[in-house]
Amino acid sequence: MKFVDEYRDAALVRRLADAIARATTRPWTIMEICGGQTHAIVKFGLDELLPSAITLVHGPGCPVCVTSADLIDHAVELALDHRAIVCSFGDMLRVPGNTVDLLTAKARGGDVRVVYSPLDAVTIAKECPSRQVVFFAVGFETTAPANAMSVLLAERARLRNFSILTSHVLVPPAMRAILGSPDNQVQGFLAAGHVCTIMGIHEYGPIAREFRAPIIITGFEPVDILEGILRCVTQLEEGRAEVENAYSRAVRAEGNVHARKVVEQVFEVTDRDWRGIGVIPASGFAVREAYSGFDANKRFRLSKASGQNASECISGSIMRGVRKPHDCPAFGTRCTPESPLGAPMVSSEGACAAYYRYRSRALRPSATPV
């Protein structure tokens, strides 16, 4: 398959791994931001091909994982207390809030529906004019255009029963927060190619210069990721800190201008509370006042944020690159995909889910060798 098979070429992967080994003369810690990249790294064993001096750590690029427990509680409240039809992507249903998750709300009689697009929720609103329909708008910049378009389509159709519960988060402020943390270990980044496809690459230059950290825009296949690591190591070894686009087949410097206009029309930048990390200033999207009629936070009287309950889940440390999933004492025992303590074990992009799926036999103390 074009643009897939050629980026999984085993011989090219080995050559890139050898080139990284030759270029490396000292220890470096590199963070891949996107959960999709994390899963590719673990699934294909790319980190095991690298020299021991290279440490890959996993960033907060899983939107499900960083959605605050309070927002989960609000979605549950909409379904149970306000009797709204809550539409969501499937991987949000089992993410724990402070009390219960959406799947439990559904079991208790809430009308929670899995959809494949926010536009599906608009269609449901048209078909159920007597019911309030709320789409749980979760995601990074990548999903923001479709969520913004759902608001515009609802306005055009004069739907008064459609709104979105917004939980959009932004990548560059999170990178800045990680690099500025007192316990930061990250020296370079692999940035998420699909985010840059929408937003472009101009926001990354100031971050690279301020923190002296190279930022390489990469894709999600083995060749993409190893090419990004090679470029990052080369810059680190040479003492450079620049932004490089290693995903030019999809990313243009300016991004997708039309998609950005739609996003800017409907959303404005706001502070956002990241699960396990805390509030990061100017790190999310909120619905603009002009479209406040489609903002579930303003349409419904929702309870105040209660603050996240204490948990033994170490997801915050994992998503800041300080620890890895196997450092958690609950990994694979008290915390599994069937009984998760935290979102990274639930989401299809979560780091803990990747380790459990592809490496749980090697990491769990109780595992029986094959």
Helix and strand content put the structural class at alpha/beta
Task: Give helix % range.
Answer: 25-40%
Top CATH class of the largest domain: Alpha Beta
| Overall pLDDT score | 92
How would you describe this protein?
- The chain is of the alpha/beta class.
- It folds into three domains: 129 residues, 3-Layer(aba) Sandwich (Rossmann fold); 138 residues, 3-Layer(aba) Sandwich (Rossmann fold), CATH 3.40.50.11740; 46 residues, no CATH class.
- Helices cover 38% and strands 18% of the residues.
- The strands form two sheets. A six-stranded mixed beta sheet has the order 4-3-5-6-11-10, with helices on both faces. A five-stranded parallel beta sheet has the order 2-1-7-8-9.
- β10 and β11 form a beta hairpin.
- α2 packs parallel to α15 and α6 packs parallel to α7.
- The radius of gyration is 21 Å and the shape is globular.
- The C terminus is likely disordered.
Keywords:
370 residues; alpha/beta; Rossmann fold; 3 domains; five-stranded parallel sheet; 18% strand; disordered C terminus
Secondary-structure map with pairings?
Elements (H helix, E strand, L loop, with lengths): L9 H14 L4 E7 H10 L9 E8 L1 H4 L2 H12 L4 E4 L13 H6 L4 E3 L3 H10 L5 E7 L4 H13 L5 E8 L1 H9 L8 E5 H7 L4 H8 L3 E4 L3 H17 L4 E3 L11 H10 E8 L3 E10 L8 H4 L15 H5 L31 H13 L7
Parallel strand pairs: 1-2, 1-7, 3-4, 3-5, 5-6, 7-8, 8-9
Antiparallel strand pairs: 6-11, 10-11
